């Protein structure tokens, strides 16, 4: 009976550990994402005391057509400037995954909503540290930093037998930082343009690189001359931009790789995809060490049509509330059953 009791406790501990893996923060709780009566101090107070960890999500509840959610730089946040955003989500509820450490800034770009207080800043930390830390500087080459070895102290030789050494009081060196998300500049110095050697340019660029969930693709291009569209494989093969999964129009376009598998990108300006402005990559799971070989694109067969303007793709709505609450309830139930069984 005692063995069964401990097995139940082990299952409860496992559930509690899983419940801490990710937290969904409903921005503003019951107030949602709107113009607060107390100004910007309302969302500042909401965020204070909370711990935002890489992998957590923010859920913005708002009425479509009356508000939006735009991630911006600090300077744009301070000035309430919604002209150049990192991404914009138009459909509520909008879910944003926190996939990098450091300060993150969000505003509503409708009219004077931001200046009236509809703005939020959060500080995201690594789960291992559980305390705020500066955002890591990603490597452009995709190689994580390596820690310098710490020399091991040696003792002077002695001819007199010595007793067993006492435990060392010198603290062990702290483990080096884990590799965070990496930002890849598409095409490096070439940027995002129509290459002279066709699609081979971006195929060669992606060859040998490892793309993982959480990494970021940065597309640098001239404004109003190009764009970035994510497509299905069929539309990518035929350079068909009539139904993109997502469209980015403001450079530099930063695309966070939030799921594994093949991803396909083109420029939707007529003729550019057929000229070779297209990129296919394969994304592995977080922490995977395998090389990411780009999928083999098929030869284009049809001419692309003029892209229809669209904003960044809004993620599918999810239920509000913290994901850990349900598991905590299950854990409490299991503890009750275990106690009843034992006694």
Automatic annotation (TrEMBL):
Keywords: Copper, Disulfide bond, Electron transport, Glycoprotein, Membrane, Metal-binding, Nodulation, Signal, Transport
Any one GO CC term of the record: endomembrane system
Region (Disordered): 129-182, 285-322
One Gene Ontology term from the biological process aspect of the record: nodulation
Pfam families to which the protein is assigned, alphabetical: Cu_bind_like (PF02298)
The keyword Chaperone appears for this protein: no
GO molecular function terms noted in the UniProt entry: electron transfer activity; metal ion binding
Subcellular location: Endomembrane system
Segments of skewed composition (Low complexity): 129-145, 289-312
InterPro entries: BlueCu_1_BS, Cupredoxin, Phytocyanin-like, Phytocyanin_dom
Gene3D superfamilies named among the record's database cross-references: Cupredoxins - blue copper proteins (2.60.40.420)
Signal sequence segment: 1-21
Stretches with biased composition (Pro residues): 146-178
Domain Phytocyanin: 23-126, 182-285
Protein role: May act as a carbohydrate transporter.
Family, as annotated: Belongs to the early nodulin-like (ENODL) family.
UniProt name for this protein: Phytocyanin domain-containing protein
Source lineage: Eukaryota, Viridiplantae, Streptophyta, Embryophyta, Tracheophyta
Gene assigned in the entry: Vigan.01G431900
């Amino acid at each position: 009976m005692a063995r069964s009791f401990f097995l139940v406790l082990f299952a409860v501990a496992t559930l509690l550990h899983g419940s801490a893996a990710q937290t969904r923060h409903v921005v503003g709780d019951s107030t949602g994402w709107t113009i607060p009566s107390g100004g910007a101090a309302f969302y500042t107070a909401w965020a204070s005391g909370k711990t935002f960890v890489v992998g957590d999500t923010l859920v913005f509840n708002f009425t479509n057509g009356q508000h939006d959610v735009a991630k911006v730089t600090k300077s744009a946040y301070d000035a309430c400037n919604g002209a150049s955003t990192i991404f914009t989500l138009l459909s509520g509820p909008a879910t944003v995954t926190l996939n990098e450490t450091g300060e993150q800034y969000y505003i509503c770009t409708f009219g004077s909503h931001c200046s009236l207080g509809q703005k939020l800043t959060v500080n995201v930390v690594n789960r291992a540290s559980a305390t705020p830390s500066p955002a890591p500087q990603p490597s452009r080459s995709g190689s994580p930093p390596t820690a310098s070895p710490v020399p091991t102290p040696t003792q002077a030789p002695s001819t007199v037998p010595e007793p067993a050494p006492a435990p060392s009081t010198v603290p062990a060196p702290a483990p080096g930082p884990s590799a965070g998300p990496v930002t890849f500049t598409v095409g490096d110095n070439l940027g995002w343009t129509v290459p002279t050697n066709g699609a081979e340019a971006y195929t060669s660029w992606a060859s040998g690189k490892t793309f993982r969930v959480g990494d970021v693709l940065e597309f640098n291009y001239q404004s109003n001359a190009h764009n970035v569209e994510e497509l299905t494989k069929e539309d990518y093969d035929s350079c068909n931009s009539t139904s993109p999964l997502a469209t980015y129009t403001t450079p530099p376009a930063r695309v966070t790789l939030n799921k594994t598998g093949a991803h396909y990108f083109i420029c939707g300006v007529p003729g550019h995809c057929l000229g070779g402005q297209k990129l296919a990559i394969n994304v592995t799971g977080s922490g995977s060490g395998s090389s990411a070989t780009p999928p083999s694109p098929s030869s284009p067969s049809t001419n692309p049509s003029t892209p229809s303007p669209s904003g960044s793709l809004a993620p599918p709505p999810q239920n509000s509330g913290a994901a850990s609450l349900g598991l905590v309830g299950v854990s409490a139930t299991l503890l009750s059953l275990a106690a009843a069984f034992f006694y």
